[in-house]
Amino acid sequence: MTAPRTPRIPYGGDYNPEQWPEDVWDDDHRLFTRAGVDTLTVGVFTWSLTQPAPDTYDFTVLDRVLDRAAAEGRRVCLATGTAALPPWLAERHPEVNRTDFEGRRHRYGQRHNFCPSSPAYRRYARGMARRLAERYAHHPALLAWHINNEYGGACYCDLCAEAFREWLRDRHGTLDALNDAWWTTFWSHRYTDWDQIEPPSALTEHWSGPDHTAFQGITLDWFRFTTDALLGCFLAEKEVIRAHDPDTPVTTNFMGTFRPLDYHRWAPHLDFASWDSYPPLDAPPTRPALAHDLMRGLKDGAPFWLMEQTPSTTACRDVNPLRRPGELRLATFQAIAHGADAALYFQMRASRGACEKYHGAVIGHAGRDDTRVFCEVADLGAELERLGAVTLGARTPARTALVFDWDSWWALEISDGPSRLVKYPDVVHAYYRAARAAGADVDVVPQTADLTPHDVVLAPALYMVKGDLATRLEAVARRGGTVLTTFLSGRVDEHDRALRTDVPGPLAPLMGVRVDEWDARPPEFAQTVPELGAQARLVFDIVLPRGAEPVATYGTDFYAGTPAVTRNRYGAGEGWYVATALDQPGVDQVVRRILAHHDLLGPYADHPSVETATRVAPDGTRLLFLLNHAPEPAHLTAHATATDLLTGKRVDQGEPLVLDPLGVAVLQ
Ligand code: GLA
Ligand code: ZN
Prior knowledge:
Layout: E1 11-14, H1 22-34, E2 39-42, H2 47-50, H3 60-71, E3 75-79, H4 87-92, H5 119-136, E4 142-146, H6 158-172, H7 175-182, H8 216-244, E5 250-251, E6 253-254, H9 263-266, E7 274-276, H10 286-298, E8 304-308, H11 327-337, E9 340-345, H12 372-387, E10 400-403, H13 406-413, H14 424-437, E11 442-445, E12 456-459, H15 469-478, E13 482-486, H16 508-511, E14 513-520, E15 527-529, E16 534-545, E17 549-553, E18 563-570, E19 573-578, E20 580-582, H17 584-597, E21 610-616, E22 622-628, E23 634-637, E24 642-643, E25 650-651, E26 656-659, E27 664-667
Parallel strand pairs: 1-2, 1-9, 2-3, 3-4, 4-5, 6-7, 7-8, 8-9, 10-11, 10-12, 12-13, 13-19
Antiparallel strand pairs: 14-16, 15-16, 16-20, 17-18, 18-19, 21-22, 22-27, 23-26, 24-25
Zinc ion binds at residues 99, 115, 117, 155, 157, 159-160.
GO molecular function: beta-galactosidase activity; metal ion binding
GO cellular component, one term: beta-galactosidase complex
Binding site for Zn(2+): 115, 155, 157, 160
């Protein structure tokens, strides 16, 4: 199953009319119509209304919300509302409250606060999902199911400890296997009974926080267990929805590059992926782009939904800057360019009370339709309406893949040595950014992905190489492709045990290098890499070429003159090894050389502010998105004769093509 079929890009967002008297709803719908809003996500936090007591259900408000939406010709993404507990549930079953990393049993409060292993939570959450499905499966407004909200966090209670042990039994079979996997003879940890195993927390294996563990094996398994425990909650709800509604697509809203949950383990269970984009402050536009491509990669390149973004400002940060005029439009088209088939906001109308009352909304507290934000939202709504269905279902024809792996992320960042300062997403982003700035479309894929469509595979910081990936990477090179990997790759097996081979383990034959030693230095220290005119930091593998030729070398220290970057001929292709954390200009040069070899540099690769992305519609229509991220106009020369779908204007090949500040063109 894929995302819901719609005649245009669904436009709208989270809508909580239950917070307001009904005369306000009249204003809302009038304004929605003006803004071209056709889709509302409802019911995300309604549990204490729909079930005010254990045996009392009350759907009158939700009925009215859905009926009203239908009467207005709008569709609804209906949430099951199980992300925030009603107080009575926590009162009646205190064990539904989470126990935190420090071992403190929480009392009622906040949201995203349920213990995933609590039978009471699962029973009531499933009960709510079932009732909603029974009631609304055939409602004319229903477009999609939205289970829970932004799953995340962990619980360290006794129920979770017991569930963890069950999970471990399943995974390892015997205690001998577990002891071997976790290397428990180290520090006298050999377990002789499953009940001796404790969740890794501040009270057990950890010190100074979740990244410092005495046993990587147990902590890794705990992250996997947490992923699966929350997935179990999702599946419990999905199952009862399916029993009553076989046809409506089901999703839950993810958070992009979110470390705690391995979304690749979830992906097969979603009908379509969706996610909430709140880019970090001052992040380059390739950060949200990477997350979009990661989310698109969850369902094998199928379009995803942008389930939330703010029209103007967030509230949860210490300082919450406004989106400047034009930035919302640019961010929305960026999402569409990367595969979003819906553009939804958090939120449609601002709350009056509680912690999100200053969070940006399409409609502010005064209910006006002449604010700058409302006008920008309405203009964008009209523009998307004009664009119609042309982008829907379109795929990205990328020939470059970037391997993204949660196990590697976890294992690398919980490792003692060589450096705590290496952050997996930063390394991955540097390579992604280089490829995108050079104009290449990139599929961000799991280790298990089919790599046959790709000529270039970037696998930076691939700490844990699993299954037959090494063989498939060799196959890419053998048929003429290029594979790149870096320092901190090919280091450990699936239990985080060092491999009994030379580094980079299973990647060594393809890379033609051997690494016996690595140096790590504080961030102030920069090693020079003269051939690239670049600098390198943090970690420095000392490379012994075993067939590979040096492309660039270290400039100083006892390993001066030894390779920092190598290239190895393999079959008809190549393996590139980057032995250190090059600065961005260094990464750019390496990646551009590889892309140029495969003729994958984009037509506007020399315009640093201009992002390009391609989508090919189901009918074969090829669309090239041009996004100008600079506050000045971008002066380009059209690479082909095309029509800009947003203006209807034709540009001829070789003629000037000017993008406005923060401007967008969609060339067909
Ligand atoms: C998340 C949640 C929303 C809201 C926004 C605020 O994405 O899903 O309920 O809290 O953050 O930015
Ligand atoms: Zn628990």
